[in-house]
Amino acid sequence: MMDTGEQAEGIIRMALAEDLGVEGDVTTRAACPPEATGKAAISAKEPCRVAGQPVAAKVFELSGAGATYEVLVEDGADAAPGQEISVVRGPLAAILSGERTALNFLSHMSGIATLTSRLVALAAPSGVQIMETRKTTPGLRVLEKYAVAMGGGTNHRQGLFDGIIIKDNHIAAAGGLEIAVRRVRNALGDRFPIEVEAADLAQVREALDSGADIIMLDNMSPEKVSDAVGLVGGRARVEVSGGVNPDNIGAYVKLGVDMISLGFITHSAPAADFSLNLALDS
Question: How far apart are CA 227 and CA 277, in angstroms?
Answer without folding.
Answer: 55
